[in-house]
Specification:
The complex is a heterodimer of chains A (about 400) and B (about 375).
Chain A (H helix, E strand, L loop, with lengths): L1 H14 L12 E11 L5 E8 L14 E8 L2 H9 L5 E3 L5 E5 H5 L3 H4 L14 E5 L3 H8 L8 H14 L7 H9 L6 E7 L29 E10 L2 E6 L1 H11 L4 E8 L2 E18 L2 E14 L8 H26 L6 H6 L5 H6 L2 H6 L2 E10 L10
Parallel strand pairs in A: 1-4, 1-5, 5-6, 6-7, 12-13
Antiparallel strand pairs in A: 1-2, 2-3, 7-8, 8-9, 10-11, 11-12
Chain B lengths: L9 H18 L3 H4 L6 H25 L5 H44 L5 H18 L1 H26 L16 H12 L3 H9 L7 H29 L2 H6 L3 H6 L12 H31 L4 H18 L5 H13 L1 H17 L9
Helix pairs in contact in B: 1-4, 1-6, 1-8, 1-9, 1-12, 3-7, 3-9, 3-15, 4-8, 4-12, 4-13, 4-15, 5-12, 5-13, 6-12, 8-9, 8-12, 12-13
Classes of the chains: A alpha/beta (about 400), B mainly alpha (about 375).
Chain lengths: ~400, ~375
Amino acid sequence: MARLKASALVLVLLLQTGCLHGVPTDEYSYVIDIGVEEGEILPYRVWFMVNNPSGGSGESASSENVTVISAEANDLYEAADTLAGSSPNQFNFARTTLLLFSQELAQKGKIADVINVTYGKLKIRESCRVMITPDPIGDTFEGMVSSADPSMTKVKTHLAELAVMTGTTPVTTLGQLLEAFSSKTFDAAVSYAGVNKGVPIPDMAGGDSYPYLGGALLVESILQTSCAGAAVFSGERMVGILDGQNTMLLQMVRGEFSSGRIQMPYRDTVLTLSLYKNGGAKVRIDGDAAVVRIGIEAALERPLRLPGTDMTELETAIAEYLSMRTERVFSALQQAGSDAFGFGCAKVMQYTDMGAWRLTDWETMYRNLSASFVYKVKLSHDPYDLALE
Amino acid sequence: MNLREGRSGVREMTAAAVIGTVTNGLFAVNNADAYRNGNMQYAATAAAVLLSLLFVGLMERAMAAQRTESLDGLLTASFGRGGGAVVGLAAVAGLLIAAVLPMTRFLLILTRYVFVEDDLIAITLYLLPVILLLSYFGLEAIVRTSYLSVWLLGLAFLGAIAAGLPLFRSYRLFPLLGGSTGEFLMQTLASLFRFLPAVTALLAVGKGANGVIYAVKAARRGLLIGGGITVLMQVCIGLTFTSDYLAQLPAPMYHFTMQPRYDHPTMRVDKLILFLWIVFGLLAAAFYVYAAALLFCRLFGAEDSRPVAVVMSAVCTGAMLLLHFSTAAMHEIVTAVYRYAYLLLLVPLFSTALIAFWKRRRPAWQG
């Protein structure tokens, strides 16, 4: 009898994982990517890249069962409803991993109006990656799809890994973007993607070298769309773009940098340096002055040897160069009113009263903030005496 | 008499207390109210756990003073048979509300994030049989099932922390402790309702725990372990979301598990973890419903806890549905319940304890 009771209990508990509204996986259309741009008649045109699995696992996709569809609507939910009416299958957003917004929409500060995940009607995860593109969404999607990877699963993983390896583009999730919109502690920096035009474009801060920027790379490649640099925001509005190397400096200050490369002029040559995180960044704000201390490990990549160069002297030169470049990025961001460096995060830590923080006019304080960036560079090998040679 | 008490050890009772405190500690929170002036929830929760521990000590001494083995005996000794029954009704109501609040939160998560296309009543009807059957079978069934599954609770929360870990940022906890001392005090008192139900339930089923000493031991352990997990999880939530954002979220715990990026190995464990939490929610709800039914039976002289447990399970399920009506009046009621429900347990039990000390039984030689 006791066993019977225990079995009954276990059976009832198992019911909790059951389906209430069973739909076979091949009757779902999985929306894997969403794009939003301004519409011609209605406020928005929403694009869905849809995977229709032919049965079994929905993860795999061939070019035949991936389609791109779009609709004009007043918001994302309306677009989903409109498109569902003309689709043989039921839409499922549980596997959506990319949200692509047009630059025009971002500059007008309309992203927050389009999507609100706190009411999870569409089940879109806050962990979705967000990107901004200056080009038509349809063209950008088309440029990201290859026959070997029609659902863009591999390209998205590759881009996330590339971001960590090179630091040239941030990986920003929808949750982080919405947090930046709703709090005044930092402004968002979002990955920038565009259809290649083969013409370099300068960014808002400028630089000494080739600007790595999505859509402006000098490449001939399988994918027509490239991803590099960052779109930076002030509140809900996009206010500028940073190229790949400036994005790397941005990530160093935000403490999100892992590794990357930079070129710097030194005496009568140009050095190529590999940079690695070495202790992260510490921000301190006293009054209207901020000091950021950043630990970086550097390895001389080209040339391998610099005869007659003192290691300490080179470390100081690299630190000064990085500091100068970062100050230039800070100045550009400050002029645009963007706290993409996240100084607000350090500022809020000086408060113990929520009321006082809410009353603080951080926007004005930030515009008057002076910042210095102190890099502590450690060379990983002696350029004068290379042990390997 | 068929009060379904059985006999259970301290470990089983501790498991039920841990599940009860963690479930209510994390899912019986009114987020809009709790985070409106910054994040002080983790500190208020820690303070509420400490106050609950003091309360356990007080009740232990009061019961020792009256030489009684369960809460109904203490109520009767302090207020007499009629008075004890009336005062005890407040505790019964408190226990039932404690069963309803976290389950309502789970229903909200299920309707908004899991079974979006389905009807609320259909989902609720899946929950009713579990609470009903567990509370019908009685204490031993509940606490032994709790003991068998409590290790999964640790796993579910470790999994949740692993999922959220890459996104922790310390600045999100600031302004540190946010609002005023008055606000902290108010939140601490409101948080008491997340821990006192487990204590009350254990005291109500004292005889099934082989006596008040063991019930109190289980309550202390339950509060320390369950309270510790609750505070830890609230710090983790605070490190993941700002207080402004937390105030907008209907289910911060679930959002917390939804955070990992698609390239992170813990992506999509959220539903797995959610259903584990729901299993614990059902166990906690059944524990509170059974304790309420037992207390009611003892105070009003009913001899079978089963029909009372069935009725109370149905009442709780009805209340879960009722709380989903998003009218302005219902919103006011829910806010008031979250803020002041602790009074339903604290006032009667505290006054009972004070009267018990005052009416302390003298040794026979003192007359």
